[in-house]
């Protein structure tokens, strides 16, 4: 099974619940499975019952690239009391035989696709596969090859009709932590204001840098931190990396300052990734940075100190399910010595280590689980969560624990969801090149423009951006990352007001020239591309504008504003240059009581 499966399922499972109430009956999401740079969801209007605007993804035809053996797509808003029959249609660029699955259940053993021709099949969808109101379907390629394209997947008709998204909301999400909505809002306040954080993937994989026995493992789609799995390296052999791991140039303060310079407000670091190696002092396993390496220091200690000193929130990533080292952990099917009991693994490794990371480093702002399912069933998830709550009751937890826990945040990975997740907090995590963990040969860096515009896009949809760096075996954040962080920081210094503490754009249909955020009586127009006529239109906008100015220079130029009561037009004066990555215009709106007629000056 491909590596990102569980997360993708999580994404699919949740997206349907989160769209605005006027959204489609069939909420549909499909995306490529690259799991790397460029992986974007490819969403498409399904006939005329689809209405999710504000996404460039809609400009593209639905296109699902077959990088691995699975092609996923999903739907929300199902009536869990009904049994559905559906007609499915799709196009394939080559002849393929595939298996159709609904969740874990096989719905059709063999679906044949002819090259370039539309293929159809009728399916009964087993109710067990959408017991929570959302359905994930997958086409598994049996023959005909990966690497290619299956497109235009559509559910043509269903019997009965779906319920609609608005009815599929699950109140459990709010009660999970046994708190009121107000308490929850308080707890998430800092996160909603922060908008921008640094993800740090650091572990033994940095020592290998994506190479094993002097050769690169896999291709550009393979993540550095997945090397042990990708090359099926035996446990004892992989563990020898530890004897060389000596990050003598590690300087926590430098890392924290790099994040701070970029305008980031929190850091989330891998304390233990799927390789099972603890980057902290632990008594639960000798496979840790103190006992197994020549370095012998606890980098989390220093990091916690530096974060506290510089007002940076600190979060811990912990791989609770996949652990290719410790017996009973999930995901290792190539080394016999890994066989073991999952309860033992959870009780002897996970819970003690979670106890350590949440006890020994002060306030921890975020616990970032990864890959729900596998070794973590409901009972084990319950035990883990109990430990967390006992130690850090205010902690923000993502949606990847497993055991049906929703957590506080959705975690779209490597993509920006078309409309955000209305009613849910969310955070897109993304690599700065193509890998999370350091890889010597990955030079596929995102540009500063891309990074900033993605931050604008995410903010305009009400989410956070957790941007990754993968430090080296010597403990250094790659220079390419540092350079970008500095440049992003320059933009943030001038324009951060348009990002921090803002909420999603009031224009769900989007604006063609950029992105919009709002805060109190302020609107921020983040202009990426100035239209030829230099007019920025705010559709359906009738509030009175008191003042408009450029964030990069209040006195730069007078912005001419007009309104016909239906839309507001701003004319950017000749001579004013819209700079990359984005020039921001602030609009101060009249307070409610000052609102005159629907005209703006
Ligand atoms: C995926 C990968 C993992 C990475 C994570 C970040 O789950 O398995 O390597 O840590 O994404 O979101």
In words, what does this structure look like?
It is a single chain. The protein is an alpha/beta fold and 601 residues long. It folds into three domains: 6-165, Jelly Rolls (Sandwich); 193-498, Glycosidases (TIM Barrel); 514-593, Sandwich (Immunoglobulin-like), CATH 2.60.40. The chain contains twelve helices and 26 strands. The protein has helices at 5-15, 172-175, 181-194, 205-208, 227-230, 235-239, 252-262, 299-309, 342-357, 378-391, 448-460, 479-495, and strands at residues 27-30, 63-65, 70-76, 84-92, 96-102, 105-113, 118-125, 135-143, 149-159, 196-200, 211-212, 215-216, 266-272, 313-318, 366-369, 396-397, 409-410, 425-430, 464-469, 514-519, 522-527, 535-538, 545-550, 560-563, 568-571, 583-589. Helix 11 links the parallel strand 18 (425-430) and strand 19 (464-469). Helix 7 (252-262) packs across helix 8, helix 7 (252-262) packs across helix 12 and helix 9 packs parallel to helix 10 (378-391). The longest helix is centred in the C-terminal third of the chain and has 17 residues, at 479-495. The relative contact order is 0.11.
CATH architecture of the largest domain: Alpha-Beta Barrel
Class of the largest domain, according to the CATH hierarchy?
Alpha Beta
The CATH topology assignment of the largest domain is TIM Barrel
- Describe the sheet with the most strands: 8 strands, parallel
Query: In which order are the strands of the major sheet placed?
Result: 16-15-14-13-10-19-18-17
Give the terminus-to-terminus CA distance. 59 Å
Query: Helix- and strand-based class?
Result: alpha/beta
Bound molecules: alpha-D-glucopyranose
How many discrete structural domains?
Answer: 3
């Amino acid at each position: 099974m491909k590596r990102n499966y569980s997360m993708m399922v999580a994404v699919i499972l949740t997206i349907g619940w989160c769209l605005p109430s006027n959204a489609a009956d069939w909420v549909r999401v499909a995306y490529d499975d690259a799991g790397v740079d460029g992986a974007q969801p490819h969403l498409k209007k399904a006939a005329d019952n689809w209405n999710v605007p504000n996404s460039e993804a809609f400009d593209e035809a639905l296109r699902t690239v077959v990088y691995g053996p699975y092609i996923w797509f999903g739907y929300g808003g199902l009536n869990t009391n009904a049994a559905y029959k559906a007609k499915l249609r799709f196009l394939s660029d080559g002849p393929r035989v595939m298996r159709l699955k609904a969740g874990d259940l096989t719905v059709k053993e063999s679906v044949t696709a002819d090259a370039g021709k539309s293929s159809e099949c009728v399916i009964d969808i087993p109710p067990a596969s959408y017991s929570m109101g959302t359905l994930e379907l997958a086409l598994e390629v049996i023959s005909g090859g990966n690497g290619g394209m299956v497109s235009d997947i559509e559910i043509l008709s269903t019997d009965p009709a779906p319920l609609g998204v608005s009815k599929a909301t699950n109140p459990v999400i709010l009660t999970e932590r046994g708190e009121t909505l107000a308490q929850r809002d308080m707890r998430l306040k800092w996160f909603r204001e922060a908008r921008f954080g640094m993800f740090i993937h650091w572990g033994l994989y940095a020592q290998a840098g994506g190479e094993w026995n002097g050769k690169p493992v896999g291709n550009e789609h393979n993540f550095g931190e997945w090397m042990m799995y990708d090359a099926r390296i035996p446990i004892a052999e992989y563990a020898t990396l530890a004897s060389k791991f000596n990050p003598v140039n590690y300087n926590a303060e430098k890392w924290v300052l790099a994040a701070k310079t970029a305008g980031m407000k929190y850091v989330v670091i891998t304390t233990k990734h799927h390789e099972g190696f603890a980057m902290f002092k632990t008594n639960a396993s000798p496979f840790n940075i103190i006992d197994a390496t020549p370095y012998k220091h606890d980098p989390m200690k220093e990091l916690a100190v530096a974060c506290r000193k510089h007002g940076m929130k600190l979060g811990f990533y912990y791989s609770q399910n996949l652990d290719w080292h410790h017996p009973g952990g999930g995901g290792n099917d190539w080394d016999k010595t890994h066989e073991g009991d999952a309860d033992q693994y959870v009780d002897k490794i996970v819970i003690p280590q979670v106890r350590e990371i949440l006890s020994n480093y002060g306030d921890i702002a975020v616990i970032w689980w990864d890959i729900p399912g596998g070794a973590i069933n409901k009972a084990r998830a319950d035990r883990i969560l109990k430990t967390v709550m006992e130690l850090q009751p205010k902690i923000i937890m993502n949606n990847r624990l497993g055991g049906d826990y929703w957590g506080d945040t959705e975690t779209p990975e490597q993509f920006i969801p078309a409309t955000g997740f209305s009613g849910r907090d969310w955070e897109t995590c993304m690599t700065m090149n193509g890998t999370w963990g350091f890889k010597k040969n990955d030079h596929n860096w995102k540009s500063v423009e891309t990074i900033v515009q993605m931050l604008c896009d995410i903010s305009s949809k009400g989410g956070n951006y957790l941007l990754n760096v993968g430090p080296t075996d010597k403990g250094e954040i790659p220079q390419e990352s540092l350079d970008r962080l500095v440049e992003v920081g320059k933009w943030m210094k001038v324009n951060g007001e348009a990002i921090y503490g803002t909420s999603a754009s009031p224009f769900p249909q989007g604006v063609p020239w950029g992105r919009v955020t709002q805060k109190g009586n302020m609107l921020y127009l983040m202009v990426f591309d100035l239209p030829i006529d230099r007019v920025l239109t705010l559709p359906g906008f009738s509030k009175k504008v008191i003042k408009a100015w450029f964030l990069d220079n209040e006195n730069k130029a007078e912005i001419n504003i007009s309104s016909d009561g239906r839309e507001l037009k701003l004319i950017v004066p000749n001579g004013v240059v819209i700079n990359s990555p984005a020039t921001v215009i602030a609009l101060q709106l009249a307070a409610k009581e000052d609102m005159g007629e629907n005209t703006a000056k």
